[in-house]
Design brief:
The complex is a heterodimer of chains A (about 425) and B (about 270). Chain A is of the alpha/beta class and about 425 residues long. Helix content of chain A is about 25%, strand content about 35%. In chain A, helix 5 (about 115-125) crosses helix 7 (about 160-170) and helix 6 packs across helix 7 (about 160-170). The chains are: A alpha/beta (about 425), B mainly alpha (about 270). Chains A and B meet through helix 2, strand 4 and helix 5 of A and helix 2, helix 5 and helix 12 of B.
Chain lengths: ~425, ~270
């Protein structure tokens, strides 16, 4: 029934890295020619990187495929090859139909030219015919909402107007296969909404969409299938739901010792810098898999950079889709906030999380209690898996997402017989 | 999209599909070039008038370069006109790829469109500078003959020469930015090696073959011949050498095209 829209076979892309720019002057080329060939080959090998390797997948017509992966996993390289901006080193890409992209909204926009002039210029650059642009011109302008300024040079536009006009042109292209990089969704909420609506409209009209995103809710909402790239290879492929879950786990995998890189995505004033978060078992050994009902300690190492009068710490547990399940603050139960002098600290929370079997992530934070100001907050520092096994044999629970997250403490009592069954007496 | 499957012919066929882009890019260049200049298009006129004044004083008045019975300003401008077009086209063409990196690293279209549009854009300037020429010819009372109809052939020759070198230089410039520094020298040297401020008569016989192998000699001499009379190109040297210069253009154009097409796959990666 369905046809293949995009076919990618054994795709590979080799990049030169390192001293690329400076090595590429005429003088260096002459110098390199003077050196021996063997030496040159060796130098070559040291300065190359496979941005993509052995990548194969297919996208069916009408499918919305999410492309996931960390920065540097090869997503953008893949899109550049699909968009024919660069050539693959090996392998093949076959696109059935017309390829369009929302990779680079506003490409070729010239600040000196008016909105009207840029609509035509940009449209032609994106592969439209002048006749088509003329036909759609009013629609494009209406969609962009810049009617009044259409004959003003775009250098006088606000960045929002600029982006809206650029997006209006880009989305008036009618491709069979559309590449969307989430870069475009950095606009305001209204702008994002438009992008998503546009993708929805395209996919429901049978167009194929490939979507790069770091926003898991967006991928789950929009994509039917997804692929996960890591170090240039496809490491997972399947339903968007599955791949998103895998991605979120993979995202935190190496941090089983819980070190939080200074460059990790964090929010806060920076008065406190969270360094490390660990989950320890009773013997003080770091763990990432918890038994059902197992008491653990959460250890938080952090650095205080300025004197703080009212510090509280936060440890939160979220599902892999980012839904917060439970939170513990250090001032819970009426404990007073901490007064901290600059220095390195460790804090420990003894807890029985009381969770049902599932994959979770640990979020940690430090805040001012008085103004509620966040000093540092890092999401997903660790992944935690609550197993379907307990320390005492026989305590089991069926893992099932429909059964919730929290495992309340307490025990069922044995049923007590309180009377005869009504049906028994009625017979 | 198989790298092995690109042929020159297929590439040129594709170019035809993108002709609108070609014109729009050329149009943009022209528009942007004059949009913010208060005097706008007037610069196309002011520039040559000033050079003519200088050349007339220096070469016409002081050095008394022989020009037959043609007044020096007309003599020089008839050659400066195609030369300026050629020099502008070559300079813009060589820098065109590096200047449009923002475009071709984002969107696919045949890369040939870029140097082509740079050269095409020069034609508008050329058209406007003809107004100056008409003015000069009116002042000096020179009426051109029907030979003026041969002018397009010389414009085509100048364009193809500029294109051939632009293909080589623009592609090389992507990898080696030195090219950007070299081109102005190259253009300057080339100008003095071409009969622009002087005529072929001034050059000793033994150097004339060299002069004739320069395709731009054919262009500037051709312009003079068509506009103000004088010897047709090649008559003071040999027509075989003019043929040789045309052959050179074909070779540069062809090898430039091959080199350009072979390296364009990596433009986006190295630029």
């Amino acid at each position: 029934m369905s046809n293949v829209a995009v076919e990618v076979r054994d795709l590979g892309k080799l990049y030169r890295i390192g001293r690329k720019k400076s090595a590429d002057t005429l003088r260096d080329a002459v110098a390199a020619a003077a050196r021996g060939r063997a030496r040159r080959d060796q130098e070559e090998a040291e300065r190359t990187l496979w941005a993509l390797r052995d990548v194969s997948f297919e996208v069916q017509e009408g499918e919305v495929l999410g492309v996931l992966g960390k920065n540097g996993a090869g997503k953008s390289t893949l899109f550049k090859i699909l968009a024919r901006v660069t050539e693959p080193t090996e392998g093949q890409v076959t696109v059935y139909g017309r390829m369009g992209s929302l990779l680079e909204v506003g490409t070729g926009f010239h600040p000196e030219l008016t909105g009207r002039e840029n609509v035509f210029l940009n449209g032609v650059i994106l592969g439209m015919k002048r006749r088509d642009i003329e036909r759609k011109f009013d629609e494009i302008v209406a969609f962009s909402g810049v009617e009044r300024f259409i004959d003003t040079p775009v250098k006088r536009y606000s960045s929002g107007m600029y982006a809206r006009l650029a997006f209006a042109v880009a989305s008036s292209v009618e491709p069979d296969v559309l590449l969307v990089d989430e870069v475009l969704s950095v606009g305001d909420a209204e702008f994002q909404k438009r992008c998503f609506e546009r993708m929805h409209a395209l996919s429901s009209s049978g167009k194929t969409v490939l979507f790069i995103s770091h926003s898991m809710p967006a991928v789950r909402a929009l994509c039917s299938r997804a692929i996960l790239l890591a170090e240039g290879r496809v490491v997972d492929e399947g339903s968007a739901e599955e791949v998103v879950a895998r991605y979120l786990r993979a995202d935190f995998e190496p941090s089983s010792e819980g070190t939080i890189a200074p460059s990790a995505p964090r929010v806060g004033t920076g008065e406190v810098l969270l360094r490390r978060a660990q989950v320890l078992d009773r013997l003080g050994k770091p763990v990432s898999r918890l038994l059902l009902g197992q008491p653990v300690s959460i250890l938080l190492a952090f650095e205080v950079r300025q004197p703080i009068e009212d510090a509280i710490l936060e440890a939160g547990i979220s599902t892999t889709d980012g839904v917060r399940v439970t939170t513990s603050f250090s001032n819970d139960g009426g404990r007073a906030p901490d007064v901290l002098r600059p220095g390195s600290y460790e804090a420990r929370l003894d807890i029985e999380p009381g969770l049902l079997p599932r994959s979770y992530t640990l979020d940690v934070g430090a805040h001012h209690v008085n103004r509620g100001l966040t000093m540092d907050f890092v999401q997903g520092v660790l992944s935690l898996e609550v197993l379907n096994e307990s320390e005492t044999s026989g305590d089991r629970h069926l893992p099932n997402p429909t059964r919730g997250f929290v495992r309340p403490s307490g025990m069922w009592q044995r049923p007590t017989r309180v009377g005869d069954s009504p049906t028994e007496g009625g017979r | 999209m198989n790298p092995a499957r690109r042929s020159l012919v297929a590439g040129l066929g594709e170019l035809a599909e993108y002709r609108e882009l070609l014109f729009y890019l050329a149009w943009r260049d022209i528009k942007v070039r004059y949009k913010q200049a208060v005097l706008g298009v007037a610069w196309i006129v002011i520039q040559p008038v000033v050079s003519i004044a200088i050349f007339s004083f220096l070469f016409g008045r002081l050095l008394k370069v022989p020009t037959g019975d043609v007044p020096y300003p007309v003599f020089a401008y008839a050659a400066l006109l195609p030369w300026n077009y050629f020099a502008g086209a070559l300079t813009r063409g060589s820098g065109s790829l590096v200047g449009s990196a923002g475009l071709f690293t984002k969107v696919y279209f045949p890369r040939l469109v870029i140097p082509l549009s740079a050269i095409l854009g020069g034609l508008v300037d050329l058209g406007i500078s003809f107004l100056v020429l008409i003015g000069l010819m009116l002042i000096y009372g020179i009426t051109p003959s029907l030979l003026i109809l041969t002018l397009p052939a010389f414009i085509v020759l100048a364009s193809l020469t500029a294109l051939g070198f632009s293909l080589w230089l623009s592609a090389l410039n992507v990898r080696y930015r030195d090219v950007g520094h070299l081109v102005p020298f190259f253009v300057q040297i080339w100008m003095y090696a071409t009969p622009v401020v002087y005529g072929t008569d001034l050059i000793p016989d033994r150097f004339r073959p060299l002069l004739a192998l320069n395709p731009m000699t054919t262009v500037t001499e051709g312009f003079r011949w068509a506009l103000v009379g004088g010897a047709p190109p090649g008559s003071t040297t040999s027509f075989a050498l003019v043929g040789g210069s045309l052959g050179l253009v074909v070779i540069v154009l062809w090898t430039g095209l091959v080199y350009f097409r072979r390296t364009e796959q990596t433009f986006a990666d190295v630029v």
